[in-house]
Amino acid sequence: MSAAIPEKRNLFKELKAEYCQPKAPKLVEPSVGSYLAMDGQGAPGGDAYQACMEALYGMAYTIKFARKGEGADFVVCKLEGLYAIEISFEEFAALPQEQWKWRMMIRLPEGVEDAHLVSARAALLKKGKTGDFDSVRLEEMHESQCVQMLHVGAYDEEQRTLDVMLAFCAENNLKPHQWHHEIYLSDPR
After folding, report:
1. 19-28 tens-digit pLDDT
2. pTM of structure
3. 29: exposed, middle or buried (C-beta count within 10 Å: 0-12, 13-18, 19+)?
4. DSSP states of 120-174 as a string?
């Protein structure tokens, strides 16, 4: 008799109300989430950004396979990004991308702890992998109500989507926060 194989967690499906892809602005209530996170500055696709992606995904997949061995397998979630908006959205969009400050993140299921990060770093180094794994950290996010909308296109075209979202905010007496949160359904570069 064999033991039942535990089902693989897929947070993107479990939390589909939070990861909706509306073509028009929609209010969303995000739940508290645990993330692998790393901060940086530069253009998407640039050297700093690429190094961040390699470190985040290296850690995420190493933790995933360790958790699978513990009977807690999960699907690695979509990449998410927070962009610091200390200025207006319009001014931010006009900034050269090399000046963009960001926090890239991958959401994790419950149960991932600092000990998993320590083990993942050691496993990656043992395999001869290089990267800034020490800068990857666990972070819990508590977001309030947000406006969400699907953007299709390049970063250079994002202002049109932001304008629609800002108009929605104005019509509904909502004020944008200092972070612009993106969820990537495909490669963000």
Report:
1. 888 899 999 9
2. 0.89
3. exposed
4. HHHHHHHTT--S-GGG-EEEEE----EEE----S-GGGHHHHHHHHHHHHHHTT-
